[in-house]
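User: Can you model how NAI sits in this protein?
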Amino acid sequence: MSANYEVRGNVAVITLDNPPVNGLGHATRLGITRGLETACADANVKAIVITGAGHAFSGGADIKEFGSPKALAEPNLLSVILMLEASDKPIVAAIHTVCMGGGLELALGCHYRVVQTGTQVALPEVKLGLLPGAGGTQRLPRVIGVESALNIIVSGEPVPSELLAKEPGQKLFDKIVDANVLDAAVAFAQEMADVHPLPLVRKLKAEHPNAQAYFQFARNMVGGKSKNFPAPLKCVDVVEASLTKKFDDGMRMERETFIALMFTPESQALRHAFVAERATTKIPDVPADTPVRDIKKVGVIGAGTMGGGIAMNFLNAGMPVTILEMKQEALDKGIGIIKKNYEAQVKKGKLKQEKLDERMALLSTTLNYADLKDMDLVIEAVFEEIGVKETVFKTLDEVVKNGAILASNTSTLDVNRIASFTKRPQDVIGMHFFSPANVMKLLEVVRGEKTAKDVLATVMGIGKKIKKTCVVSGVCDGFIGNRMIEQYSRQAGFLLDEGATPQQVDKAVENFGFAMGPFRVGDLAGNDIGWAIRKRRYQEKPNVRYSKTADLLCELGRFGQKTGAGWYDYAPGKRDAIASQVVTDMLDKHRASLGIKPRKISDEEIVERLVFALVNEGAKIVDEGIALRASDVDMVYLTGYGFPLHRGGPMNYADQVGLFNVVQAMNRFAKNPQDDATFWKPAPLLAKLAAEGKTFS
Ligand code: NAI
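Assistant: Here's the modeled complex, given as structure tokens:
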């Protein structure tokens, strides 16, 4: 039973006890109802208090029960709340620390609420594409007003209890205390023992002086901000019902809307991403209790694009960083950019000047490797050339103390080879950040053949400390993300060969939900980067077919925004992508040279070819054990590549489409003579799952 029962004087105390946050799983719900039955049957008990053990009143639904029949099994939360309301002995919620989701709904079903300052109050269901499903949408507006309730429900963000206690006329909290909330609630319950009839939130009236205009305004605001997600607008509808409908009718509408949202692909995607994010930290052969190394000082080699951003992550976390460069000018330039980045944040009011000073004070620079000898972690971000990496790692091996972790930010080179440059390959690992490294959430943690388990565990922990989503990848060309993007780029190129324009491809993909299509990304990142990678990659793999269009573009010097021209034209100083006649002519000429008569390609085909290219490579990556699970592949794409969140990542999207249908589409593409039939051979895992009617998840 995940709830405890005791009697203090003539007050029964039911304590939710389901660590870590007293999730309202089946056993906890059962514990509450048993406690209520006992309390109601005991003539000595005059009042009841419900509270939470440990560091929460309740965090709401139990995520361990997500998607299982237990989540809905009786007594469900609605039934528990009905039972609270039916009690003729007063029930007081003693709320502290965390009161979220179902936890808040439970408290709203009690007759009274005593809260301890510092409690975080939230209804976060919208973040999973849902809305509060146990009366939150109907009861909260009745106690704090329609506008405040809608803000909480639509944002899903926590609000401190003190702020809510200040709402004029609020009836959410009957008493607020600074400490010992349980004692205060027991005393309060004793005072209320003889009150009759007991107050119920459902009996209150939600009011608004100008409801129609307000809800019109709310719909405009919420609709504009929640493109691709149906839940926020539904929240508005249901909260409006708290005003326009009788309580029971409002509850019915809440329930029906909740169930309808549960079945939307958007909610499924958000729930998938929520679970996937938590799964990334689980490494089967590296248990959670693996000892970790103490990381206090961090060295970064190279103060270029990546080195600067990487350093900022650690400075933001309050860790001292030493950056090493070859020349003073490079150091000065790199440090100047870090400072400018922080100053921009200060200007926008996102960072206080003191914080900027604190962070810059943690940063030291050097041209001398000896200054890195005491570092606990060194991250290399020098030029992407194996010879340069060799020199750097050999030097680090000589200089840096034993037990330090030596990491490389390489995006394409072999981490095992880099490790072999040292006499301590067990201490070498890849930490693949994404640009801009101080902003992007993703960190691919590349586990070499010889990487020690405690090194992996330490780096996963450090990644969490600097607020990254860490995904473990095995060693292969491009790791998880870039290996997949290669196939996506190849398809994008074939589409141009066959008759699509860069703007058509970009638009189709952007309508699907990507922030930017492949050609706009190329212009932003610099087409020369891909050019250099292709030269190396396809020299090593001469049999791989790819479109030559991107190379031709680079031969014209059209590297993208930085050269004022790429797949698009750019007006000086502007970033707007303008269709380019030069590119159109280049593509026409190229198609003619291949003897291709351009055809009209549908947006649907464009999206399917690009996304299924990711899916097929993703399946290979999972099958080979490069990724630990399909949902890790999704996290890489959601946090590092702008894959639309409402689709839940490429693998989840493929599951939604149905793997059988994905394979059917691939078979169709394989028949296209301009495409590459070998490209569309389904990965063994994909073929197997499709044949068995299964999904990646
Ligand atoms: P960058 O050219 O902006 O910076 C490299 C810096 O390293 C330069 O400041 C250079 O002076 C310095 N450097 C070169 N050799 C050195 C040495 N022996 N000792 C000390 N400093 C040295 O390059 P960027 O873009 O920062 O890339 C660095 C690494 O990060 C590469 O391995 C790259 O593949 C990887 N990477 C780059 C990403 C990007 O989007 N730019 C994304 C993820 C990884």
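A couple of observations from the model: The domain at 298-473 is CATH 3.40.50.720 (Rossmann fold). The two ends are 31 Å apart (CA to CA).
User: Helpful, thanks.
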